[in-house]
Structures are given as structure tokens and as C-alpha cells.
């Protein structure tokens, strides 16, 4: 695999760390800025809002630029946002800085996925995407716990300075390892062409599968701490280690999904969604004792992230004329899944259905994701040209070779 994938993974590691570390630092931030923890929780929402807005917007506005230049610029914006977070004097300025930090998130993964697939043969496209996402999943194993401990001992501002340093390392890596792609910039269809490619029904069905499928994950994962402490009986001090197990499962699932999707993209997607639904259905049973609860958290990460690479590649294939914009839009869909899944899981809790009820709500979302994926499959089959017997397929266009090697 090309070394440039390492540069993309370094950027993904920094992004994954800053996205999730705020959840572990809320008490420290709230105390330092003299606000309540629920108020400090808006910092998580501000970042997610930045992702949802920035992903399609930045990808569209930079469509005529070299993708190498875009990636470096996005990472520079990421560094600026985290540095401003470190020096924010109050909650309002920190909210703005977190929003700024989230803006490049989706576009980086979206454009990065296109760059990753352009550097490898067609039979390794899904695997290349999974290797980029490896930085995100490893962040949950090492980056987030280490950054949380740093924030607790050295102050939360030190955490964001450290994340800024990771971003600078990613910029250097991107500049050294990612090849120039001037041919893409010259051949780009521009903003109008990018937006026109999103009018396709298969693109929206693929995005809908992402929202439902990953909404299933976040319906349960958002409330996994009360499940572990209230149902399984773990002490609160054990939760950080257990969440690292989620990262281990996510890393394994991501790598497995990339390999399987190169053989059968749609089969891997269906299999991953079925596995996720089964794991979530078993959550109430598995959460009864400590050892099986730890297994449940690991399996949740694995089952959910098996679908990561297939979904990313499928969206890119359905918008062949605008893979960067569609790929970035998929990251916005992922964050909508985060917010929507957490909300639906919260409704189950508020209704008094029990501590593990968010997992059952997640299982229903997994079934919904399967349904949307099945509709997408039906739509694809109906696009078979009856007069010739040929399937009208859309694939990620081959790059000119400037990105190969």
C-alpha cells in the first residue's frame, strides 16, 4: 500500500482524537470556564454542527483545486481551530473554536477517501479507505484515553495544544507523501457539476443507509456508560478501559470490512448491518455480567465499523462525477447519525424502558438501515438496460495516474 495512506491516517488520528476527547474533559472544561456540565456539553454539539456544515460546503468550494492542496489546507484549518480552542478565554469563544475545528473534519475524510482509492488498483479500493479510517479507530484506543489523561493532569488546554501538534505532523506528512494531482484540478467539473451529481436517487439512498446504520451504533454507544455501571456493575473508573475495547473492536471491524468489501461490497454492507442488529438485540442479555458486557462493547465496535468502508465507497460510486463531494456528504451523514441516534436512544430511556433500551432502539435502526440498503439494491437492479442486457453501473472514475504510486 502507498505510504501516502500513512499521512491520511495521521490526519484521521488527530481528527478522531479531538472529536471524542471533549466528552471525557467536560467536567474539567465546565469547572475552568464556570459553566454547568450540560452547558459545556454544547461544545460537543458545536463540533458536530461544524462537521455537518463544513463537509459538503468545503468539498464543493474546493472542487477545482488539487486534492493534495485541499487536504493540506483542511488540516491547517484543523490546527487553527484546535489552537484557538486551547487559548479560548471563555465558553462562547470555545464554542466558536470547536465549530471551526469541526468544519474540515468531513471534507478531509471525504477528499482523503477519493485520494486513497485513486492510488491503488480497483480491487484494493475498499482496503485503502479502511487504512485511512484506521487512524480514526486507533484514536479511540490510544488517542482519546491519552488526551483525556493529559487534560486531567495538565489541564484541558494542553490537550488541544497536543492535538494541534498532531495536525502539524499530518501537514508535513501530507506534503511529503501525497503526490501532486494537477490533472484532477484541470479536469474538475466545478461547483455546478459537483452539485448536479448529488441529484441521483442512489446517492441519497446510500447516504440514508449511513444515517440509519450508524444511528443504530450511536443510539447504544451514547449511553454505554450507564449500561456498564448501572447494569453490568462496573465501577466508573473502569469505563475508560472498556471504551478502549470498543476502539479495538472498531479497528478490527474496519480492517475486516475493507478486505471483505473488495470482494463483495454490497454483501459486506448487508452482513455488517445484520451483525450490528444482532449484537444490539443481545445487549440486554450480555450486559448482565461483567465479562459478557466487555465482549458486547468490543463486538459493537466491530459490527458497526465493518460497514464503514463499504458505505464510503458505495456513496463515491453512486456519484462518480463528484466523488469528493459525495464522500464528504457521507461524513455529514455520519454526524447526523451521531446526533439522531443519541436522540432516539434517549427517547427510549426517557420512556422508562430500562437502561439497555437504547440498544434495542439501535437494533430497530439497524433494521431500517437494512431496509434502505435493500431499496438501494432494488433501484440498482432496475437500472439494468433491458435492451442490451447490460447493467448501467457507476464506478469511481479512474484517476490519471498522477496519484498512483
Query: What kind of sheet is the major sheet?
Result: none
**Strand element count:** 0
First-to-last CA distance:
9 Å
Strand content: under 5%
Question: Which ranges are low-confidence, i.e. pLDDT below 50, for 5 or more consecutive residues?
Answer: 387-405
Q: Write the H/E string, N to C.
A: HHHHHHHHHHHHHHHHH
- Tally the helices: what do you get? 17
What's the gyration radius in Å? 20 Å
Question: So what's the overall shape?
Answer: globular
- The overall pLDDT average reads 84
Class from secondary-structure proportions? mainly alpha
State the share of residues found in helices, binned by percent.
over 70%
Task: Provide a compact summary of the structure.
With 405 residues, the protein is mostly helical. It is built from 17 helices and no strands.
Amino acid at each position: 500500500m502507498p505510504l501516502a495512506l500513512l499521512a491520511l491516517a495521521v490526519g484521521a488520528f488527530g481528527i478522531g482524537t479531538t472529536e471524542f476527547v471533549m466528552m471525557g474533559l467536560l467536567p474539567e472544561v465546565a469547572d475552568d470556564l464556570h459553566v454547568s456540565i450540560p452547558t459545556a456539553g454544547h461544545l460537543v454539539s458545536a463540533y458536530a454542527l461544524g462537521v455537518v456544515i463544513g463537509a459538503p460546503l468545503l468539498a464543493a468550494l474546493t472542487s477545482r483545486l488539487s486534492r493534495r492542496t485541499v487536504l493540506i489546507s483542511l488540516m491547517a484549518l484543523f490546527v487553527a481551530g484546535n489552537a484557538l480552542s486551547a487559548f479560548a478565554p471563555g465558553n462562547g469563544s470555545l464554542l466558536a473554536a470547536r465549530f471551526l475545528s469541526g468544519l474540515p473534519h468531513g471534507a478531509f475524510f471525504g477528499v482523503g477517501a477519493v485520494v486513497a482509492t485513486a492510488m491503488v488498483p480497483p480491487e484494493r479500493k475498499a482496503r485503502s479507505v479502511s487504512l485511512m479510517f484506521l487512524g480514526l479507530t486507533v484514536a479511540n484506543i490510544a488517542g482519546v484515553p491519552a488526551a483525556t489523561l493529559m487534560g486531567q493532569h495538565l489541564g484541558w488546554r494542553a490537550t488541544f495544544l497536543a492535538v494541534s501538534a498532531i495536525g502539524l505532523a499530518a501537514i508535513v506528512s501530507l506534503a511529503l507523501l501525497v503526490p501532486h494531482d494537477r490533472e484532477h484540478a484541470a479536469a474538475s467539473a466545478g461547483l455546478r457539476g459537483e452539485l448536479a451529481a448529488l441529484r441521483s436517487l442512489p446517492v441519497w439512498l446510500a447516504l440514508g443507509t449511513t444515517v440509519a446504520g450508524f444511528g443504530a451504533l450511536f443510539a447504544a454507544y451514547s449511553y454505554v456508560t450507564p449500561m456498564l455501571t448501572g447494569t453490568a456493575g462496573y465501577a466508573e473508573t473502569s469505563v475508560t478501559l472498556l471504551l478502549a475495547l470498543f476502539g479495538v473492536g472498531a479497528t478490527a471491524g474496519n480492517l475486516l470490512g475493507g478486505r471483505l468489501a473488495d470482494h463483495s461490497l454490497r454483501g459486506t454492507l448487508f452482513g455488517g448491518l445484520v451483525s450490528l442488529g444482532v449484537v444490539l438485540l443481545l445487549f440486554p442479555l450480555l450486559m448482565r455480567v461483567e465479562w459478557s458486557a466487555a465482549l458486547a462493547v468490543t463486538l459493537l465496535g466491530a459490527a458497526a465499523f465493518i460497514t464503514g468502508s463499504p458505505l464510503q465507497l458505495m456513496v463515491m460510486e453512486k456519484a462518480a462525477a463528484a466523488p469528493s463531494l459525495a464522500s464528504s456528504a457521507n461524513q455529514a451523514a455520519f454526524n447526523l447519525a451521531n446526533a439522531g441516534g443519541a436522540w432516539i436512544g434517549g427517547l427510549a430511556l426517557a420512556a422508562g424502558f430500562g437502561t439497555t433500551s437504547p440498544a434495542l432502539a439501535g437494533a430497530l435502526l439497524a433494521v431500517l438501515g437494512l431496509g434502505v440498503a435493500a431499496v438501494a439494491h432494488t433501484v440498482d437492479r432496475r437500472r439494468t438496460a433491458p435492451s442490451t442486457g447490460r447493467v448501467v453501473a457507476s464506478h469511481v472514475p479512474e484517476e490519471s495516474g498522477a496519484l498512483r504510486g
